[in-house]
Design a protein that fits this description.
about 290 residues; alpha/beta; Malonyl-Coenzyme A Acyl Carrier Protein, domain 2; Alpha-Beta Plaits; 2 domains; six-stranded mixed beta sheet; four-stranded antiparallel beta sheet
Amino acid sequence: MRSYIFPGQGAQFTGMGRAVYEGSAEAKALFEKANTLLGFRITDIMFDGTEEDLKQTRVTQPAVFLHSVVTALTLPDFRPEAVAGHSLGEFSALVANSTLSFEDGLKLVAERAMAMQEACELQPSTMAAILGLEDEVVERVCRSIKGEVVVPANYNCPGQIVISGTVAGVEQACAKLTEEGALRTIVLQVGGAFHSPLMQPAKERLEQAILAARFVRPVCPIYQNVTGQAVSNPDIIQANLISQLTAPVKWTQTMRQMLQNGATSFTEVGPGRVLGGLLKKLNRQIPCDSVG
């Protein structure tokens, strides 16, 4: 089973997408269409902007999405049998497997970025990576924190979970998790508590845009973040995508399910090689190429 996986926010880098843009007339046309749809030349920032430029909310998520999607759509032998995307990457995957059009996917990602930024500004919040503990321990400690919000947000691979919540909630959880034997707790440089209840305002705003978009039956199943299961029904895909902003990213569960269902190789499409690294923590025997 030829499986393609798509990275999320944090994979961006200066110069991203330039080689794709310059190497294909089709790619150039898609990038220029994105410049028009977004109302600014995102390609100028992607190709020549600074790291700080790329961290702008209106830029980061569309930039990662564009790099991934344009790379996928211009691959000469792109015939996916299964796709998945980590958080933001789920939108890339949905365009790659033809559930969403390029235009609708880009519009949703741009709306998502602004909705998340607004939610972040409502309350100081953060995320932290927890290394070296079983999932159940992290879940139990998060439940034990009273009076604050802190929840598991990303199940990245065995022994690596990201938690998300209020600043005080994350700090208290990190202290307790260190006592429980965590190898490291690393507070992440992010703008807010993604994939937590604090994203509810963003979910409500994005829901309207998702419901207005056209979802069609995909050419292959997508393994979605909120369940880790293969989905082909457009209505279920749409509902899961709405739930995604406040629900945890079940990436470990996703990779295990894809392997169980017969995935024999993976290709990570877009900037970086983070997802390939996470796959190795789960199964070193399965190859994962990287393009883009």
